Amino acid sequence: MARRTYQRQRRTGRGSMPHAMEAIDQLDREAFVARFGGLFEHSPWVAEHAWADRPFDGPEELHEALCSAMYAAPRERQLELIRAHPDLAGRAAIAGTLTEHSRQEQSSAGLDQLTPDEFDAFTRINGAYRERFGFPFVVCVREHTKESILRTAAERLEHSPQEEVRVALGEIAKIARLRLEAAL
After folding, report:
1. Same structural domain for residues 53 and 94?
2. Phi, psi of 40 (to 5 degrees)
3. Which of the residues 13, 27, 93, 122 has the least number of beta carbons within 10 Å of its own beta carbon?
């Protein structure tokens, strides 16, 4: 909380979205969760916890509150959040059961248009990653190409489980930031 107070004192105002942020600050818990609960894959509890940090000076502070809720959660809750993410180019994509956010994100990297060889490569890396860590490979695909996703997954297979949880949560924070920007 001291960090947020310091940051709030440094700011000179509510940024470029004063009216939008005021409206967000006035949302009751249920409406806030309805609006922002989907930013973290199937994990509305993140928004539930961040709601208590209102008022927000701007989108950055809202994102910070959401991420703080994620990082403050017990490890098992964090693992549930990571496990809520679908495999990249996996069964949910084939079945058409991805969330709209995930569908758009995977599509942005071309994961909806894989060649058979690329699909096999994703299937192999997803399997190896899940076997090693017990959760899906999570990466902010909007920052990658198909090739860089595969390369990053192979590199991250070398991480320790503890390090990989930290990296996966960092990627989830990036994903949520981009989703928040689109929502605002």
Report:
1. no
2. -110, 115
3. 13
Per-residue CA distances from 32 to 27, 53, 132, 182 (Å): 5, 12, 36, 16
Q: What is the pLDDT of residue 17?
A: 61
Mean pLDDT of 102-131: 92
Which domain does 128 fall in, by range? 82-183
pLDDT single digits (tens) 126-176: 999 999 999 999 999 999 999 999 999 999 999 999 999 999 999 999 999
- Once rounded to an integer, what is the mean pLDDT over residues 69-97? 90
- Residue 37 and residue 12 share a domain: yes
Q: Which residue among the candidates 85, 101, 144, 159 is catalytic per the annotation?
A: 85
DSSP letters of 52-87?
A: GG---SSHHHHHHHHHHHHHHS-HHHHHHHHHTSPP
CA angle 77, 49, 7 (to 5 degrees): 115
| Cα-Cα end-to-end distance for the chain | 24
The amino acid present at 180, given as its one-letter code, is L
3-class state of residue 42 by DSSP = coil
- Are 68 and 87 part of one and the same domain? no
Is 50 exceeded by the pLDDT of residue 103? yes
Place of tokens 């989830």: 172
- Whole-model pTM: value is 0.87
85 counts as catalytic? yes
